[in-house]
Amino acid sequence: ALKSWQAALDAVDDDPKQVSRQFHAYAGIGRSEHALKRFPAAIKAYEEALKRLPTDAGVKAALARARMGK
């Protein structure tokens, strides 16, 4: 599922509004995958979100938890 979302998100231009939307989309995918305990997919989505907004503390913390399998 993540691959189809990623392809759609990557097709969008890199203007600031789109980058923000991409960040929120990837963060949401990460939260969904995390809730389903699909940690590798959650990690990948969180990492993609952080490529767009590397300073987001919430996603950084969620990524750390996913890496610990929690």
Shape: globular
Given helix and strand content, the structural type is mainly alpha
| CA(first)-CA(last) distance | 21 Å
The number of helices is 4
From the alpha carbons, calculate the radius of gyration and give it in angstroms: 11 Å
Helix content: over 70%
Percent of residues in β-strands: under 5%
Tell me how many strands there are.
0
Instruction: State the major sheet.
Output: none
Low-confidence stretches: none
Average pLDDT: 88
Q: What are the secondary-structure elements, in order, as H or E?
A: HHHH
Account of the 3D structure:
With 70 residues, this protein is mostly helical. It is built from 4 helices and no strands. Helix 1 runs antiparallel to helix 2 and helix 2 runs antiparallel to helix 3 (39-52). The longest helix is centred in the middle third of the chain and has 20 residues, at 16-35. It is globular. The mean pLDDT is 88.
